Amino acid sequence: MSLIPPGLSRQFSLTRTWPLIQDVLVFATVLAVFYGILTIAHYWLGQAVPVTEISRSPWSLPRYAFYSLVRMGIAYFLSLLFAVTYGRIAAYNKTLQPFMVAVLDILQSIPVLSFLPGVMLAMVSLFPSKQVGVELGSIILIFTGQVWNMAFSFYSSLKSIPRELSEASTIYRFGKWQRFFQLELPYGAIGLIWNSIVSVAGGWFFLMACEMFVLGKRDFRLPGLGSYLQTAAGNGDTYAMIWGLVAMVGVILLIDQLIWRPAIAWSNKFKFEQVESTHAPTSPLLHLLRNSRALNAFREKTVEPLGERINLYFARRRPDHPRSATTPAWLKSLGALLAILAIAGVGYEVFRAFALLRGVTGMEFKGLMKGAGATFLRVNVSLLLASAWTIPAGVAIGFNPKLARIMQPVTQIAASVPATALFPVLLLGIVQLGGGLGVGSVVLMLLGTQWYILFNVIAGASAIPSDLREVANLFHFSRADRWRIVILPGIFPYLVTGLVTASGGAWNASIVAEYFHFKDAVMSTVGLGAQISAATDAGRFDTLLMATIVMATLVVCTNRLVWRPLYRLAETKYRLES
Amino acid sequence: MRETIIEARALEKFYGEPGDNPIQVIAPTDISVYAGEILAVLGPSGSGKSTLLRMLTGLSMPSAGEVRWHGKPVAGQSPNVSIVFQSFALFPWLTVLENVEAPLKARGIAEIPRRKRSLKILETVGLDGFEAAYPKELSGGMKQRVGFARALVVEPEVLFMDEPFSALDVLTAENLRTETLELWANKSIPTRAIYLVTHNIEEAVLLADRIVVLGKNPGRIRTDFQVGLPQPRDRKSAGFLQLVDYIYKVLTQPDAAPQIAPETEKAARGKYPMLPHARPGGISGMLEILTDRGGHDDIYHLADDLSFEIDDVLPIVEAASMLGFVNVSEGDVGLTTAGRQYVEADIAERKELFGKAVLERVTLIRQIKRALESKSNHTLPDEFFHDTLDEHFSEEETVQQLQTAINWGRYAGLFDYDSASRKFYIAEEKTETVRG
Predict the structure, then answer these.
(1) For testing the chain B interface, which of A170, A171, A184 should be mutated: the one with the most B CBs within 10 Å?
(2) Which superfamily does CATH assign the domain made up of B4-251 to?
(3) B137 contact A CB<8A
């Protein structure tokens, strides 16, 4: 073994020269985290200020960015816990499984923003005198926006664990603890990380919207990046808006570099592959963390012995005959009792909801239907417009690896900026050009959703085998034939995935895009999204509920009737088997 | 009398709801594992050999019957067993050492003794120096060594092996076989019996003290005998070849694929004739090779020369015999007149001969053809046939039966299938344009 690969020698020199700097960095981080916790605790437990004034000075931006980040972080952590628990129960409990999967399916399609008033009011009444109520409300909303796809990812990972791997852990008597940490979590890790990235991006979208809003006569404001941008736009302060956007993009880029890159590189270890792949993702930060002596010592002294202790505790406590264990009768009847109570509770709530709906007049319902039609049109026009430019652009990028290398980071940065953060800025432009929200909202939806299509088309185009393209060259296919026979069928499955995500995103965006507070006035247009926002503003819960039901039904129906058949077609006819 | 470790009585396995016409996968079976033996369980695919292994180890519960370990029911105890899997089933995110330590960790063994035992067993299987490697950095043979180390580290009473060598290349497999045998013969491992599942006849004869041959539809024991040959065994010795030939004879005996004459079809309902999963091209190829050899050969020779295992060669032989192209007796195949005629024909004539034979002798294809003809638009969804087949076969087998029927029907030009709409149809214009 005299040959040292070039990467390895670099690694050696790194370990020799860097330890001091690494340790200083690590300690600095620990200190910063500690201070951050103190600040947050001080602010949260403080009295609720009736109306928090949002400063427009760029110097407040670091503080606001920090508050926004903490909200995101907590919501994400809760989502992760919930996703793993929910996924596990859904995968292993045969009785609950169909029900739980259906719930996931529907909750994914409900526009989260229409939950905003209900959740906020509930939280504020729980903690009437503390800032923590409003904060919790926004965290719950972000949580609701990002948890479902993560839960679904973990569920389907568990379901696809290879049979022999699962049997090996049974035959070698793995307990629940060991099974979770050595089989289930590693197997689901990659899916969880990729879905986390998507979820957190979605989280920023909602964060921007729910940091500042009016509910009836009450004005809720949370110090954060979203409220900063909204305040700046509301006052027409271009200078502050630019600063806000710069801070926002900076924070998102930092998260990408400091968290997601290392996480992806690290998760490569969990790839379920038999042979090592040649292009493994890398991350300098991960490298640094792995080589930090202080961190390694910390892990060896605390985490590992603790894990060992816990594992031994569970392994020794477990009876030797795990298979004879049956559920005791009292537990079964308790379960049945809980199920009955849950059903009764749900039934009562549904009854109350219907009672509330009686407040909606026939005229109002007609208005809602008209709004639904308008928003439906807008969503589809924005999808069409997005496809019109993203398909040719995506195919061009996907076919050209050089271009892809240059464009990928650029598009990723562009896509990472939450559309809701750009709305205020864009609106200013639209108003100055003399356009109304009717057209403007389409632009806003487009802004939020085109990236999903672009990314998927790029992935699809680069997955088309070069043999197929060579055949097209060999037989001198015309441009039209090339698209009809090779390109479109090749990218079809990816395109469908992109369109589904984009369509869901556009519906959600309509709530923020069709109705806007601007310099003490309200701009709005005809649409279901505007009706939801207006009902929130006016505190009309009956209209809000009705509009939400209409929107959810529309989204679920489109998913079932349009996207699902297309998905099936993509999976059978247009699958490129390797 | 040898000591009995495992004893299974009237073991049965069904799939599907009880009372709802369940599919029998394994017919009532008695099987025992004795101390001090290597038992090889041999069978074609669909004979339930993996299912049997999972019931004996307690991984899955039998639908009827009982498994006893040392005279006590397996349900309620966890016998000290290990399984070496065909796919290795290593955890790719754990190092070699961590993979081997995992079963000890599960048993609550503290870190220091755990590491000591793992390192010792890694040395035994020849993996010292690989402790920190991840499985994906290893070759197939090395991976399976990790599989063995993980299995042996718990010092199992019975070591189960589920086709452990079939994912490896020929040389690596041979090497590992020899080493396994050495470990066993030198008593380097405290294991008291080895239970080997395989579909490789030579492997069974090479390793086993006793061989159990399973038949399919439903899975059941066809023969159970001691191998008297002394170790080490010579593949070229007369005794070895005789045993291999004998097993082929058992496997190809006619009751493996019951032939049902058309008039008794109703009477024999419940035993639906099963299509062997062979492709028309494979059948033609086998018939051609047979012609080159004078129209007659030993199945064992045929398989050996093509380096086919029984799962490759048996379906082809069965299919050709079902269509009346060959006769099978005592492990030999011979071309029939129809078979000769088929080989001599050109492509178009072959299709016609194939179609005639299929319509005459294959119930499923005849049923599909008749059903399509009776419809005015000559189209039927595949669910229609799915439902008929579901009564006789497991879900997975039903899909495979239809797939084979589609392959044969297409080749013979009897009907076609549209996979997008999942419909069978007869395209009349098509046949006319071909003729014209």
Answers:
(1) A171
(2) P-loop containing nucleotide triphosphate hydrolases (3.40.50.300)
(3) yes
